[in-house]
Amino acid sequence: MAWVPFYRPSARFRFYDRRRGFSSSGRPTRYGRFRVSTVRLVVLVGIVAAIFVKEGLGLDILPTSSRFSIPGGGEFTLCSRGNQAQCVVDGDTIHYGGLKIRLEDIDAPETYQYKCESELALGKRATNRLLELINSGPFELGNHGGRDEDRYGRKLRTIERHGRSLGEILVAEGLARHWDGARRSWCG
Fold it and tell me: Which one of 21, 106, 182, 188 is most buried, by most CB atoms within 10 A?
């Protein structure tokens, strides 16, 4: 009689499935389920990789502040159909860096949808004065009001030079008024 060993797997490897293999936990393994530690490791590696890419390329992923310095230096012109890269639209709106920016602290007379001739004349004076103020030196753009955009998609910013708002200068010269959130007529 030939000796045939009788093999019985221990309790540790009791559950066996040809498709899934042995399980050390006493249950069949389930592929496709990630462990929490694996997910944490992948997230950590992603964050570290993003930091290295940011530092290597000099990108600003996290904004440091809502204030930044921009040199003015005579680079702005009046907006026209062919020029909308860096220009003054009217007394309270400019184009800069591909963005349409509205001065958040003032309301200037309209030059496109004006209600009367006196509003148009004052709006043109405000537009030319804002162009002159912007081009007279470096300035800073800041967001002090809390909202980032108005209902037309324009970025709301304050333009300042040496700590003084250029909008305040327009108000002091009678070319604009403080923005209180309400539209009021410039006519009579």
Answer: 106
Burial class (CB in 10 A: 0-12, 13-18, 19+), 124: middle
The string of pLDDT tens digits covering residues 30-58 is: 555 557 778 888 888 888 887 777 666 65
Q: Can you tell me the distance from the alpha carbon of 48 to that of 50, in angstroms, rounded to the nearest whole number?
A: 5
76 within some domain: yes
Same structural domain, 82 and 42: no
pLDDT of 63 > 50? The answer is: no
In a domain, 23, yes or no: yes
How far apart are the C-alpha atoms of 160 and 167, rounded to whole Å?
8
**Are 94 and 166 in contact, with CB atoms under 8 Å apart?**
no
Q: How far is CA 30 from CA 19, 21, 22, 142, 165, in A?
A: 10, 10, 11, 54, 64
- Whether 9 shows a pLDDT value over 60: the answer reads no
Domain count, the chain: 2
Place of tokens 């300042």: 160
Other residues' Cβ atoms within 10 Å of the Cβ of residue 3: 5
Domain boundaries, position 33:
11-57
- Is 15 within 8 Å of 23 (Cβ atoms)? yes
Q: Mean pLDDT over residues 138-145, rounded?
A: 84
Q: Which two tokens stand for residue 136?
A: 């007279």
